[in-house]
Specification:
Three copies of one chain form a homotrimer. With 325 residues, chain A is of the alpha/beta class. Chain A has helices at 13-25, 49-60, 70-73, 93-103, 118-122, 125-134, 148-163, 165-171, 192-204, 221-224, 233-237, 268-271, 293-296, 303-324, and strands spanning 38-43, 64-69, 77-78, 91-92, 106-110, 138-140, 177-182, 208-212, 228-230, 242-246, 278-280. Chain A is built from 14 helices and eleven strands. The A-B interface holds A 28, 43, 46-49, 51-53, 55-56, 59, 69, 72, 186, 283-289, 293, 296-297, 303-304, 307-308, 311 and B 36, 38, 40, 64, 66, 68, 72-75, 78, 82-87, 90-92, 94-96, 98-100, 102-103. Chains A, B, C: Catalyzes the transfer of the carbamoyl group from carbamoyl phosphate to the delta-amino group of N(2)-succinyl-L-ornithine to produce N(2)-succinyl-L-citrulline. Is essential for arginine biosynthesis.
Chain lengths: 325, 325, 325
């Protein structure tokens, strides 16, 4: 694998999932693979799980991880070609990226969308410019439209659950029903996690996949095509095996909050409609707004397992890139 | 030792002091003890000595130290149970802590009091919630009411001084007189260092312990009980062997500055009342406000030695926790 | 070498250049030299290349690098002797520096000038105070008036270019013409890089050295003495082998922008006056303000090579200090 910015960079999804679970079973089995190798981790936006799990993953491969908070430790970058830099940006990605390419073996970048201009955000200018100019493999730590390390983790977490000896029979010979449900939130959030989850579940191809959200919250078909869209949440939840809860702002009329109906918050009452579904969320989660305490603290929640699995996803990705170099 | 948040977590104070001084004599004697182990260091507030000395201590044990500045690199955490998170907090400690417990072997946390609500601060909600939910050992890097790594260092520093061959006779057969004196400051500070010093000196039990401060600056008896309280600073200083200088804001009428009399600043004139006392301070210190240049730059100051000893205190604590796991 | 804060700290410039190029050829040849050694990196100001390249250099020598952003992770330091600290500074360098000296083997510091008071800035108070009180070797990561790691890199980069087999004949038996040219910018910048480049080229002694800038932009003679000053940029550029582009604010009437004529920006048209000169810049660069896209993206630009060489300069400096300890 050369880069890791979307599922399209992954030559063999199942192999990557298996590699991650192998690291979970034996975290230090490749602790010399990354010897004398170094990842740079550039944060243009805040991060907790992604930051920490990727550092841990790198260390377990014997790599050095160097963290750089671009805004607070450095200065604003320019991404537009031919910019006349007389404003507030201090350094062009055309100059910064190739230098990162000299200092590091792999460059990991987190950048959020503006949620103001759809075309700009969906062009993925920032991560594309780093890919164009760095000259080394790029790993997305979440970009304007996608969050592939999260989505890989999500697939891993579902497969791990289904493979448990006590569950194997229940899933034998049938596809699990996976429901991605919109949830209320207090502010407009990116579509990244939802887009990316849809993209990966579709690429996995082993799920009966339903997306449910209020009208006007349609995601880009570029990612959802292949899933069934259902505006009635209760209908969608019926017999679900996994329910992935996530808020996103509108895509069509970009970056808005339309309907923010608190009735869309998942509760135990709604969970009763499912096939004892496991509940997932990428975190951070606004408790009792996006998801109720009763679900998060209940026996069906997979969120801590899921967040813990971020380490193995990152480790499998870094290892795959190291092996391809 | 399972956690390290107060002297009450320490099964054997003297053993911990001795372990620290053994690391000072041979810093790398256990450099494989922490192999493949990792501490997470979470800062909800700024830190210099604690941050750096703990990183150094971890490295000398062969551990990886991962630093995370919660506010600037992540987002605001929620600590209240059953909170409806529609405000400014982004992630609940109930979700964040167990994930830290999956990424790290030991979790170190710094958090300050609000100085607005005594009950909240003295409930130690933040550190208690991390202890409740992380599932791994918690080390306080200073909490709302205590600063145990500092206090352990303080005991180490006094014992180290007294054990010097040239001093041993002077301290033979008698307890040193230890005076904790309040000092002026420009803003209201937590009671942590003073509380914690009192708690540890009392637990040590080998000092004639006097606390001196203006009226209205009484500390909580939960920590000071066993010490003699003396409002006359000069009286208190008489024949002191160690003078610990520290400002704190009021405890009873919480978080205020009452009397801020500059006469309470320690000077060489006052030092003359003592038994050539060594002067200690946790740092940072406001020079010529809390403590005079003449004291800090004079031969009686132990502050640099004391700050240097922070490494060995942290190393002994981490090692003790690693050994108990 | 004991400290590294200016070319005057360097006993043998050529040996340091050669050591750097030897690390470029074999980065890990001394990976045990820094075993159990630790550098502290203190940032009072932002940094990207210097920060990252020094971390990389330390790692390649087997050292631990501990980064501390003084302002955001700690608090404001006081540098004035005898200060009564009742204002906004929280800790005196007299207290902080000796503690750094206990935690680290080498202390690296970045600090910028105020550009408000020339005497203060040119006294290099901050770095001098650290040298006075830390008790360990100090490495400047750029100070108020100089940027020696950059200048060492610049000499390395020119020598490396000239030593290429295809270029050796062209430079045989003659000194290269090196031109430092002022360039426009949007805000007042320090004189550090220009001062330091002049100081190092003069110390190198192997160049025909010309400095060109608009009138009123004279640099301090303490650094430029030995160079020819030429107000006509086109005249200066004639037959140049290396053109070093950099903005600086006025030195005499301190910290101002006088003439900011966009005509001073280097273009391909001006480059035609030179001897196919290689173009250098320390970065970050304001594209199309300080330097045109056509130059930066053209075949004559050495800026990425130059920034890459920062690693080897830092590695040679750290190694030289470790060897002298």
């Amino acid at each position: 694998m050369m880069h890791f910015t979307s599922v399209q960079d992954v030559p063999d999804l199942q192999q990557l999932v298996d590699a991650a679970l192998a690291y979970k079973a034996d975290p230090y089995k490749d602790e010399n693979l990354g010897k004398r190798k170094r990842i740079g981790m550039l944060f243009l936006n805040p991060s907790m799980r992604t930051r920490l799990s990727t550092q841990v993953a790198a260390q377990q491969l014997g790599m050095e991880a160097v963290v750089f908070n671009v805004g607070s430790e450095g200065w604003a970058l320019e991404f537009e070609e031919e910019a006349i830099m007389s404003g507030t940006t201090v350094e062009h990605v055309k100059d910064a990226a190739p230098i990162m390419g000299k200092y590091f073996d792999i460059l990991c970048i987190r950048t959020f969308p503006s949620l103001k201009n759809k075309e700009d955000d969906y062009s993925e200018l920032y991560i594309r410019q780093f890919m164009k100019y760095a000259g080394i493999p790029i790993v997305s730590l979440e970009s304007a439209t996608l969050h592939p390390l999260q989505s890989l983790t999500d697939i891993i977490t579902m497969q791990e659950y289904m493979r448990q000896p006590s569950k194997a029979a229940a899933f034998s010979g049938r596809k699990p029903k996976v429901v991605l449900t919109w949830a209320p939130h207090v502010k407009p959030l990116p579509q990244c996690v939802a887009n990316s989850f849809a993209q990966w579940v579709n690429a996995w191809g082993e799920a009966d996949f339903v997306i449910t959200h209020p009208e006007d919250y349609e995601l880009s078909e570029a990612f959802t095509k292949g899933a069934r869209i259902e505006y009635n949440q209760e209908e969608a939840l019926k017999d679900a095996d996994f329910v992935y809860v996530k808020n996103w702002s509108t895509f069509t009329d970009y970056g808005k909050i339309y309907n923010n109906d608190p009735e869309w918050m998942l509760t135990n009452e709604k969970l009763a409609l499912t096939n004892e579904a496991r509940v997932m969320h990428c975190l951070p989660v606004r408790r009792n707004v996006e998801l109720s305490d009763e679900i998060l603290d209940g026996p069906n929640s997979l969120v801590t397992t899921q967040a813990g699995n971020r380490v193995w996803a990152a480790q499998a990705v870094l290892a795959s890139i190291l092996r391809a170099k």
